[in-house]
């Protein structure tokens, strides 16, 4: 992480002082021996000319471009990626996941460069970098059982070890009872499904986890559970986390550093408390203000520690 | 994917499909495996013995020895030089005969278009009236839908019985004056006008229901202005369908010209196919292809004029079957299905082959449907014919399903072949296949299958696109799942059931297409009991024994009512699932149905 880790701070106040650590020395348990920083360097991206006719999921879109973005993640550190819709967050995540090819710049894990390609050539990377999508519950095939869902990446990525044990361990971490193994997503609650999707990402024991609004749409107690789970993974197991979020509270709760994106650039990048307390860019200031207004009714002192 | 690439892919695919079609036509002499030299020797030199030397001489004369490519090149060179070749049978140039037959057919089609326009106008008027009076009514009824979707050969036979035999208002056969064109024009125009009218009135009703109409009304737009605006809004969606219906007329014209003995292109092609006069068939197919391209270009141009260059491709969507609006309107198809089942069961218990009844015996208690010209039990023949026709249709449907799925998973590259297959009438495909391998049941099946997979391919493409857009498929690359596994383990299972259901709904329609080929003598031969064949046999005796026509005709009418009902039911189910689920799987719903969405691009 370019800003350096190790900063321990009081979380800016809005969530009542969640403490977190940014521990570079965390133990990375896994991933075929691949370690080192996950780095995007000078990445640019432009969506092609609007598609005519059929509108797919990535239909006509003008925003979401990137202009020479650099972002470094380290094991055991957690970074919040914030910004308004269309600022380029999702595009950056797609490029980090090697799902989209940047028009310029590189993505590398350790010393190895990563490019989109056939599934076989990316196995090592997929095992090291996993993803929790927005609406994780929707990312579960309704025809498959929980057991099948969790085993699929283990089998496809040729993960070493006892898959049954890995599945059990991952489910235990997210507090899903093993009795649900043979259920299908339609037979589980929304919160259970969401935790299954998180367990699927954790089961391959990645070094990095990219999470796109993983708690939006969850009720508050469940949100709390999931966020503390992610926080624990970073602190205790040395996971590197990139958390895409709209919500400063979430960022403050889990992430030591925060990057703010606007118009395809990273306009601010630093320790979360600093971004919260003294935002250095108008976009970050607007985010802080909007977030505070959400959490406190007008009239109360926003952001007071 | 960049829009430019998609457009290029579709264009390339279209051009390739057309080129492939021309090459296919050009290579027909070489593809014709029926021993062309025998045919020609018999036709031209009846005095010569079919010795190997004589046959070799004929082959050399036709240029069959030089192989497919030189054969094709010399043919295409001739076409560009205005020489369409020489008839294998009469040894005279093909072009003049084709030209005069084409002019007859075009005249007939003009009459048919006039009839279709009148019928379509009649069907659209209530929709406009309702719209102007701000009444909302369900879309057009099932009965009119069923009546207007009778296949042309069947309607021609029925109108012949009614208009020329019973009422004696019109001459039954020939082509000598305008009165000769009335019944043929109605036979072609009623189904065409009915389909256009139903599609247009649905579009008009939908147009009047839109928000902006209320705004216009409040700002004082008069009825004329409002109607014009709604028509301008509704027509672009219907125009490509109209184009398809017009192209489809060329296939229907073959049957109608046969029934009324009109010396048009269709009848000329039918004669050429059965006599194996390949050059005549080639020239006729080329003429029809030109006609189809002209119609397609004109409708696309009309669309451009109406809505501007917003349309780039996807301009020729699939024919959308007319549909009943609600469940109540399924009562008629259900009743027809039960009646058909009773006829089939009763007929299966009887003997369709032995001639132990009086020739053309009238219907009565021992023979409910009467007997045919050979004294065979018509009820038995109709019943057994159902099994043969529907059995063959089932095989065709499954073949179409396989081709449709394979093609539909690559929608852009397949755009051209889909359009060609979709526009090509089964009867024309049947003519080509019959000329190449001889008229037979499996030839007819191949011909119908060759042009019937397109709707299934389009549905596959739509469903697969929907399935690929699901969050649970989008994440798969991150989980290390490769493209092949995504396709076969995830996308295919999601689309399989809706497609199988769609395919089964097409069964009666395909049975009717097979019957049309049987009727024209391009399908199974005597003494097979096949609906189209039974109808063709009966039509010669229509004045003495109308029941010989009525028995197979009523079975076919029942089958078309069922076909339309099923097509409508399938459509309704698709639309309602698409609206409620919208790709989101609700807990407790059948997960297989979730990705199902509007099937035909025509519904966009």
Explain this structure:
The complex is a heterodimer of chains A (305) and B (604). In chain A, the strands form two sheets. In chain A, strands 6-7-8-3-9-10 form a six-stranded mixed β-sheet, with helices on both faces. Chain A has a four-stranded antiparallel β-sheet with strand order 2-1-4-5, covered by helices on one side. Chain A has nine helices and ten strands. Chain A is 31% helix and 19% strand. Chain A is of the alpha/beta class and 305 residues long. Chain B is mainly α. Chain B has two domains: 84-310, MetI-like (MetI-like fold); 327-603, Orthogonal Bundle (MetI-like fold), CATH 1.10.3720.10. Chain B has 24 helices and no strands. The longest helix of chain B is centred in the N-terminal third of the chain and has 38 residues, at 95-132. The model of chain B is unreliable at 311-325 and 570-604 (pLDDT under 50). Chain A binds chain B through residues 48-54, 56-57, 97, 99, 118-120, 122-123, 126-127, 130-131, 133, 135, 138-143, 152-153, 156-157, 184-187, 200, and chain B through 1-4, 6-7, 312-314, 465, 468-475, 477-483, 485, 490, 493-494, 584-585, 587-589, 591-592, 594.
């Amino acid at each position: 992480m370019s800003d350096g880790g190790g900063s321990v701070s009081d979380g800016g106040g809005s969530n009542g002082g969640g403490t977190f650590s940014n521990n570079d020395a965390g133990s990375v348990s896994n991933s075929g021996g691949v370690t080192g920083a996950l780095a995007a360097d000078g990445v640019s991206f432009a969506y092609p000319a609007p598609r005519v006719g059929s509108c797919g999921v990535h239909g006509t879109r003008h925003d979401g471009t990137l202009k020479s973005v650099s972002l470094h993640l380290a094991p055991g550190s957690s970074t919040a990626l914030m910004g308004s819709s269309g600022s380029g967050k999702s595009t950056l995540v797609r490029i980090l996941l090697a799902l989209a090819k940047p028009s310029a710049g590189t993505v590398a894990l350790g010393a190895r460069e990563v490019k989109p390609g056939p599934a076989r050539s990316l196995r090592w990377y997929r095992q090291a970098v996993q993803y929790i999508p927005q609406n994780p519950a929707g990312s579960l095939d309704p025809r498959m059982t929980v057991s099948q869902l969790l085993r699929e990446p283990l089998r496809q990525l040729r993960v070493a070890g006892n898959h049954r044990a890995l599945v059990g361990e991952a489910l235990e971490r997210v507090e899903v009872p093993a009795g649900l193994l043979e259920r299908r997503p339609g037979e589980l609650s929304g919160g259970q499904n969401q935790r299954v999707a998180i367990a699927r990402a954790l089961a391959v024991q990645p070094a990095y986890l990219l999470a796109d609004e993983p708690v939006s749409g969850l009720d508050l107690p469940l949100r709390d559970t999931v966020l503390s789970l992610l926080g624990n993974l970073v602190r205790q197991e040395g996971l590197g986390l990139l958390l895409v979020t709209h919500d400063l509270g979430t960022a403050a709760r889990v992430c030591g550093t925060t990057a703010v994106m606007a118009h395809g650039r990273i306009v601010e990048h630093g320790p979360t408390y600093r971004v919260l307390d003294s935002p250095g860019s108008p976009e970050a200031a607007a985010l802080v203000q909007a977030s505070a207004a959400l959490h406190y009714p007008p009239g109360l002192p926003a952001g007071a520690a | 994917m960049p829009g430019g690439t998609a457009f290029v892919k579709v264009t390339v695919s279209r051009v390739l499909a057309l080129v492939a079609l021309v090459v296919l036509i050009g290579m027909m002499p070489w593809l014709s495996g029926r021993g062309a030299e025998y045919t020609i020797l018999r036709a031209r030199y009846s005095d010569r013995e079919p010795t190997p030397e004589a046959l070799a001489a004929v082959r050399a004369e036709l240029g069959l020895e030089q192989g497919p490519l030189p054969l094709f090149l010399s043919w295409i060179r001739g076409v560009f030089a205005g020489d369409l070749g020489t008839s294998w049978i009469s040894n005279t140039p093909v072009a003049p005969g084709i030209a005069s037959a084409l002019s007859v057919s075009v005249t007939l089609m003009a009459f048919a278009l006039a009839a279709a326009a009148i019928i379509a106008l009649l069907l659209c008027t209530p929709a406009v009236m309702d719209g102007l009076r701000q009444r909302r009514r369900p879309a057009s009824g099932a009965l009119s839908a069923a009546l207007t979707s009778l296949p042309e050969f069947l309607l021609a036979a029925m109108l012949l019985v009614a208009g020329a035999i019973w009422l004696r208002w019109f001459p039954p056969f020939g082509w000598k004056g305008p009165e000769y064109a009335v019944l043929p024009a109605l036979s072609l125009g009623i189904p065409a006008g009915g389909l256009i009218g139903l599609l247009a009135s649905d579009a008009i009703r939908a147009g009047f229901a839109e928000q902006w109409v209320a705004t216009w009304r409040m700002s004082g737009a008069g009825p004329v202005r409002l109607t014009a605006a709604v028509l301008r809004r509704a027509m672009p969606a219907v125009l490509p369908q109209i184009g398809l219906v017009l192209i489809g007329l060329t296939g229907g014209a073959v049957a109608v010209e046969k029934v009324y003995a009109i010396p048009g292109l269709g009848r000329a092609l039918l004669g050429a196919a059965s006599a194996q006069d390949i050059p005549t068939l080639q020239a006729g197919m080329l003429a029809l292809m030109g006609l189809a391209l002209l119609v397609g270009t004109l409708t696309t141009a009309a669309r451009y004029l109406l809505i501007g260059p917003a349309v780039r491709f996807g301009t020729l969507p699939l024919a959308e079957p007319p549909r009943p609006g609600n469940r109540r309107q399924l009562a008629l198809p259900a009743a027809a299905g039960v009646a058909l089942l009773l006829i089939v069961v009763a007929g299966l218990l009887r003997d369709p082959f032995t001639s132990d009844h009086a020739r053309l015996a009238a219907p009565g208690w021992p023979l409910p449907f009467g007997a045919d010209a050979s004294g065979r039990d018509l009820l038995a023949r109709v019943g057994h014919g159902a099994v043969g026709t529907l059995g063959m249709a089932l095989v065709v449907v499954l073949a179409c399903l396989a081709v449709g799925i394979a093609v539909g998973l690559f929608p852009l590259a397949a755009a051209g072949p889909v359009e060609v297959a979709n526009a090509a009438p089964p009867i024309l495909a049947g003519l080509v296949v019959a000329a190449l391998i001889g008229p037979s049941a499996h030839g007819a099946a191949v011909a119908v299958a060759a042009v019937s997979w397109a709707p299934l391919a389009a549905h596959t493409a739509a469903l697969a696109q929907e399935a690929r857009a699901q969050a649970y498929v989008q994440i798969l690359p991150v989980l290390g799942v490769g493209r092949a596994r995504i396709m076969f383990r995830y996308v295919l299972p999601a689309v399989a059931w809706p497609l199988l259901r769609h395919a089964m709904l097409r069964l009666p329609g395909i049975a009717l297409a097979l019957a049309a080929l049987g009727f024209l003598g391009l399908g199974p031969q005597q003494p097979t009991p096949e609906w189209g064949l039974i109808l063709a046999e009966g039509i010669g005796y229509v004045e003495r024994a109308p029941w010989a026509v009525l028995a197979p005709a009523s079975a076919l009418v029942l089958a078309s009512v069922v076909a339309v009902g099923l097509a409508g039911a399938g459509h309704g189910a698709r639309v309602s699932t698409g609206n409620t689920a919208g790709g989101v799987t609700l807990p407790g719903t059948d997960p297989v149905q979730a990705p199902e969405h509007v099937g035909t691009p025509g519904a966009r």
